[in-house]
Amino acid sequence: MAGLLASLKVAEQLKKKWEGRIVMRQLLAWVVVLAAGHASAQQPDTGKRLHLERVVAVVNGSIILQSELDARLVPVQRRIAEILDEMINEELIVQAAEAAKIQVDNSEIQAALDEIKQQNNLDDVGLAQALSIYDYTLQTYKLELRRQLLRLRAINQLVAPKVRVTDEEVRARYDQLQRRYAVFLSHILIRLPAHPSEQQIAEAKEKVANAIEQTKTTPFAVVAQRVSASPDVALGWFQRGSLDPAWEQIAFSMQKGDVHGPLLSPEGLDVIRVDDIKQSELKPFPEMQEELQRELKRVELDKQVTTWVEELRKKAYVDIKL
Asked: Residue 75: CB partners within 8 Å, gap ≥ 6?
């Protein structure tokens, strides 16, 4: 204990000496280090490790701790994990292509390279300069192009033939689009706390009922300005699939000018009004049939590729070292 008190006195002396230059957080870091040193010298090893904060930078009189840096890196680390996962999937597809004896010759790689140069209006020198920004040489980029072409060819040869889209599915998609239209919504928000009591909910419902009653004789926007907790009255245009299912079922069954509430939202209870309705304008089915078929095939191919890669991963040995 005497040693710990001495450490605290040293820290106090440092504080006085460096007053105005060392922030209190740095002073406390000194205390932790000194106290830990005293504890390790006085106490036997019990097998427990004492975790100390590491200073990763000193900025004038302030410090930046490892824990602060780690907290800032969390989103970056998540993205790194996602990129690594994508790279693993890509490698599995390349391996599947090679196992199936799928090949890409040099002329195909050069053709892809020429197309890239043409699309970006680049000559050989310009392409080399552009690649150098991303630490690519022409040779390493050609290798990457080969892998990309292998993956595309593997999908086209090993997965795409399994994709089937029936005429009935195409017609159903057209009918779905025909029914689709957009609604323009305005709202009145009666805010509730995160964990409202029964009384608060009852009071909010009463405010909703009063607001709806007022809209019968007063313009909706005027009522919203009086009682809404949201500064924005207009919510905007919404298509099917872009709203919460509970909201969508009601909003798309309403007529222009209808008012409905209460609807539950993350912020409280809402009253909505359909200000306008936009009907779909589609070409005749024969003119859209081929386009819709391609769309459905793309969607189905994405599903099939996802399933295929999942199967490849189940059979593979993958050891992530991060």
From this structure: none
